[in-house]
Amino acid sequence: MYISRFVTGYHDSYVFRILNDSAVSMKRSGYLEWQEYFMAICFLSAMRSKDPATQVGACIVNDDRKIVGIGYNGMPLGCSDDRLPWSKTASDTLDTKYMYVCHAEMNAIMNKNSADVKGCTIYVALFPCNECAKLIIQSGIRKVVYASDKHASKKSTIASKRLLEMAGVECCQYEPKRRQVVIDFDVIDRSGLSQLPDSPPRQSPVPGPQPEPADCADSVRRNLSALMVEQAGDQGL
Ligand SMILES: O=c1ccn([C@H]2C[C@H](O)[C@@H](COP(=O)(O)O)O2)c(=O)[nH]1
pLDDT tens for residues 8-62? Predict the structure, then answer.
């Protein structure tokens, strides 16, 4: 019996058991739970926001746990985010972002890739304002999972809670189970993808015989057997 361990970029492991010539693979531990996954997608989307003060992301998920819409706060389509203001305050409210910016929830609903979002859950970084609450209710979304309630004392949030409650939309705050979800491209480059074959050599600009591209399956097999031999050695097998 061999027990072999694959170390991925995230330091989790796949365990392969080879018993009587049949390979049984067991799932890795430490994978993202659904709520963590959807909330992480909110925050990843928020990273696209150009708002210098508050970046908000939203992710709409249906009953089958399929993502049907994603959005973040930004200026409307075709309206230059270099020409419109990003300030919170100005002597003229026309010079503040609030007159122009589309909220993450609105964008997620507008970007939906399904016929509608009835019965869906919306994951949001920030508790939705009253305008977003109206959109949420009218679109048929039934549940809001939010990360931050930093504007709880604002009238717009109080009105939002009032509306959502009246409409019977369930709201709950996300309770993180892990402190971080890290995507470190350095780690992925150095170890996570080291199990994969090298990229094929770049095409030479000069016409002529080209080197054979690496055979993916062969390279994966070579890495796998090297790991198994190494591991078997570790275990004195
Ligand atoms: O439900 C909401 C509420 C706000 N936003 C966006 C709109 C703005 O770009 C910021 C809020 O700016 P502050 O600087 O925190 O006032 O967040 C949203 O997308 N959804």
Answer: 334 444 434 444 545 568 989 999 999 999 999 999 999 999 999 999 999 999 9
H or E element, residue 185? helix 185-190
The architecture in CATH of the region 34-173 reads: 3-Layer(aba) Sandwich (3.40)
Concatenated DSSP letters of 119-177 = T-EEEEEE---HHHHHHHHHHT--EEEEEE-TTTTSHHHHHHHHHHHHTT-EEEE---S
Question: Domain segments of the chain: what residues?
Answer: 34-173
Query: In 3-state terms, what secondary structure has residue 59?
Result: strand
Q: Which atom of ligand 1 is nearest to the CA of 103?
A: 19
Tokens of 167: 């409409």
Whole-structure pTM value: 0.74
Respond yes or no on whether ipTM tops 0.85: yes
* Residue with CA closest to ligand 1 atom 4: 103
Residue that the structure tokens 């009246």 belong to = 166
Lookup: tokens for 103: 């909220």
